[in-house]
Amino acid sequence: MNKNRGFTLIELLVVMAIIALLLGILLPALSKARAKARQVKDASQLSQIHKGQVVFSSDQDGVFMTPGLINRQPFGGAEVPGKGLEDLTVNHHAALYSCMVQQNYASPQVLYSPAENNVKVVPDSNYNFEEYRPLEGLYWDEAFSANLGLECNVSYGTMMINGARKKKHWRDSLASDFVVIGTRGINENDGTRYVIPYNGDSGNTDLYNESKLLDYFGGRNEFFANHCYNDGHVKHTNQFQPDGHALYEDGDGEKQPDDVYTHETSNIDGPTAGSDAFLCMTYGVENDDPDDVNNQLMTWDDD
Known about the structure:
The protein is 24% helix and 13% strand. The chain has helices spanning 9-57, 67-70, 93-102, 163-169, 206-209, and strands spanning 156-159, 179-183, 225-229, 234-237, 248-249, 255-256, 264-267, 270-273, 279-280, 282-285, 296-298.
């Protein structure tokens, strides 16, 4: 006589233990795979943004999209599209990316990283494409934000579009040794290196350790970034001074490694201002001095 019987309690516990063991083995691998997928998609989006700039520059003598050359200063006392001096006061990243969206060289979704972990950063789902009236001096939706202290609509850090770096590299230069856009940095002059303490002082690593960006690509207490170079290739790295990036020539004519997340490069005599590249997010300009590297209103994840 056949009898149907179910699992005994022991057998059920053994099955549950095996399932738990398998989950414990598989979940870390799945987490790594998901983080890698986000990193690859993020790199693809950086490449798309760069390609948008290259396409735009093909009709602009090789120059990338520059808000101040689109919304120029009034000419002859009136708004005349394409006429007038460059308006340096609108050369910030909020205007830049809003202009790219307005002219369909990028979408709000491409400007939002799949690895984004700051709740203040969201795609602009209400972009106003009607805000394009050249005779009124309107070329983009000024509600688009690149300010991490508010609701921000872009994830990426971009080289500042002013000064010597703008003249040389804000164009389709095909430079394989210059970073133009990438993962945004931790903060302006701190957080990218640990200065060895002396005379009883302690080194400051608070900005680094408290940054939201340390687990951006699934890292553990370490900053990783995607960097898009001006020839379009993208590198994934944990370096603030990335290999393959051009050395910076300081005031003494010495070649120094270039930290792409700060204005300064360090040498034996201390910091030297005016580094050759600086990935950041800016939402405004304080003055119209084209060589003032401090005239940009910058924003960081701790704002």
